[in-house]
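Table S4 entry, Cholesterol 25-hydroxylase like 2.
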Amino acid sequence: LSVEKLSYALSWMSDVDNVTGGQSRDLVLQPAWDYLHQNHHDLLRSPLFPVVLSVSTYFFLVGLYTVLDLLAPAWPCINRYRLHPDRPVTWPNIWTTLGVTIYNHLLYIFPAAVAQWLWRPPTPLPREAPTLWSFFLGILGCMVVFDFQYYLWHLLHHRVPWLYRTFHAVHHQYNQPFSLVTQYLSGWELFSVGFWATVDPILLQCHCLTTWGFMVFNVYVSTEDHCGYDFPWAVHNLVPFGLWGGTPKHDAHHQRPGTNFAPFFSHWDWLGGTHTVPHLLFFTL
């Protein structure tokens, strides 16, 4: 799907809701949006809010997974869900990846956030909330576009040796990922990911509430992809037919880097011949 077609679909569904399902706007998201609008208006309008939302979501999730990593060796009820239960995450692993993450935030994200605060106008907050349908459809549309963008970026940075050595090799220093590896990245990769996550909702003309929902979900699934756990409630276990890559497939990518390039869905790897079935890979290693 092109960006134009996705944008048209979102606009069309919004028009349909106005004619046939307008009451759902008031019954579902409108009360929550009214509360946010009335009580946190200045915070939500701030250009810093999306950055704070994304960063706080990331460190909250990483903190939870790191606690699980530290408890797993002594708690079989946790360790049984790890993809590599015989290879615990160590404190040196944690400090190394956390150090690079903090370095990147101080060197790249903090200056970008200050620049947004100084030069970007406040976010306009519409009085009406998005319909529940357009909210979820907008998030799905952003995920589809982001997935295609990163698939091409990822494939290119593996196929061109100079790009891999210069920008992406740092992320592959760990062949059994854990949550803090999610942003164990070069500055260029961090910029690319952040740029698409910011621009895609604008291209699809999403409501700001939909934009924030996409940002939170994007951080959640990115962290889950690297967490090293195969929980029953993981997205890849909820989406049928193997359409979602998830933790096992991305873990397989870190062990065999020529496979499973897409960050979320599986269709681009199927079409590109880069798809690998994780359990067969683990069996052969």
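The two ends are 37 Å apart (CA to CA).
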